[in-house]
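User: I'm putting together notes for a lab meeting next week and I want to include a structural view of one of the chains we've been expressing. I don't have a solved structure, so I'd like a prediction I can at least talk through. The sequence is below, exactly as it appears in our construct file.
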Amino acid sequence: MPGLVDAVKRVLVGRPVRSDSVERPLLPKRRALPVFASDALSSVAYAPDEILLMLSIAGLASYALSPWVGLAVVVVLLTVVASYRQTVRAYPDGGGDYAVATANLGARAGVTVASALLVDYVLTVAVSVSSASQYLATVLPGARGHEASVAVGFVVLLMLLNLRGVRESGRAFVVAVYVFMAGMGATAVVGGVQWLTGRLGQAASASFEMTAEPGYEQGLVGIAGAFLVLRAFTSGAVALTGVEAIATGVPAFRAPRSRNAATTLLLLGAISAFMMLTVLALARATGVRFVDDPATQLRLDGGPVPEGYAQDPVIGQVAATVFAGFPVMFYVVTGATALILLLAANSGFNGFPALGSILARDGYLPRQLHTRGDRLALSNGIITVAVAAGLLVWLFDAQVTRLIQLYIVGVFVSFTLGQLGMVRHWSERLGSAARSRDRSRYQRSRAINAFGFALSAVVLVTVLATKTLQGAWITIALMALLFAVMRGIRRHYDEVATELAVDDVAAARALPSRVHAVVLVSKVHRPTLRALAYARATRPSTLQAVTVAVDPDDAARVRREWEEMEVPLPLTVLDSPFREVTRPVLEFVRSIRRDSPRDVVVVYIPEYVVGHWWEQLLHNQSALRLKSRLLFTPGVVVASVPWQLASSKDTSRTLAVGEPGQQPGDLPGPGQERRGR
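Assistant: Thanks for the context. Below is the predicted structure for the 677-residue chain, given as structure tokens.
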């Protein structure tokens, strides 16, 4: 069984690699842009959808506001980009909002940002794979109705690729992002020319009539209309997700790191803004209809939409209209969009484990998240984000609109606290600046970050006001739970460190007065005699052989065999009126401790080493129960004395041979394979 599990693991994950094989390539701007921009650029694939979907509640006339809502989102986007350009200059070692908030606002603010980012990374994966499955259904109609299964499959695929150590900076990733950018650029140019020359066609959904939901028959009027516009704005604000990735990954840039990262941020903001406005403008020009429920919100000639009508995403409808005479480009654009959404999901698989490793190092998450696996990947973090994202996709049936409501809260929590931390950072630098040129630069940077903080805070309040009841409360609850868990873990680690600290070196080095050895005897056989020999070799102060009389006949037989073997040590028989093994042994050991509190008791337990998992169920059960209880007894040391049964020889031989072509001297030591050595 272990051999089969190991073989499957090697097929899926690959053979282990050495720790010194890790590569940290420094990226030029032309490669850094697609590597860090995939998440932010992919937001263009679903941000326009969410704006149109919200506005569709008030009917077709409300679509006239879609470009203005998009423009408001772009203003926030460019403001955040300008703010993060100051962050990358101030923190060239990376770390992002977590590092900024922790350094300038304290540990509580840092943990708040960390909880928001962890939830955000999980939602990045869930939203991206769900949107990718919808675009795949646009190209492959057979995938319709199975989007959730396809999305979960994408999660599993990305998990395996990341466990194998596939890097985001590979050429395939870079090419895919540039293909998407080229496809969107071609759509903008061709569509713009057709629009200007009057040859731009109408989308297939343009012939449908849109019905307003109850309460919005008069359009966007009154408080309800203003509230709906705010909901559309906050839904479109998902276009800002992923902007912080560059601030976190500054160390991956070539020198000068800060300048290159700031330039890449500027390019990212400009490209994202251009794509966002282009998609919304072409969607309005082609008459795209995009609603939550086509069966009830769309009408055709006064009747319902045709049975089986499937609503394509906005970019898919725009591409189909612009390239109506050249279908190949439609497949290129929609396929590239689906692919970049998968790359955006992959950024979550990179960001969550990396942040989890930092938090584990700082004591806020279990230390296992800081350990690298066989392929030098942060395996535990990768598996954690995959399980969490897959669960969300399954619970929300891969519906992007429902998942989006959870998404934007964590993004703006980290934005707001990060920018507030930068304002304090520049204020402190300003107080110690001696040169007027430095003071001017710090004042300018503080003003930019202050404006970014104010705008982010306004958007955050708007998001909380408009989306809490639509599902954002789930994100808030998850963030609060993560905050409490991380604080509890840190408190536990601090208490353990305090408890284990050496206050009195002399007392810590002091030897026990005496050592009492106790050998447990169930039968008089070779494992028992080996345990007795090991115990005698340690030269304890006292040595006792103990058996428990669970059955009187068995106890008499053990005593008789003991005497026949002429073992030079008396056998102590413990009475067990309730046929227990553990309780009598515990009471016997505690009695030794009561008589000599400064002494140490070493209990030797013979154990069988078996070669099959089912054999473990047939042996060693009493030993396992006894060890689990003895571990909680102060002043007691448990020593397992192994006896290898014949079935364990095959396993031992497999471990000795190792991988094909491997020499016995190349075998990893205990724990080395897990650590990548």
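A couple of points you could mention at the meeting. The chain has two domains: 10-15+25-304+311-493, 512-658. The first strand starts at residue 209 and ends at 210.

User: Perfect, that's what I needed.
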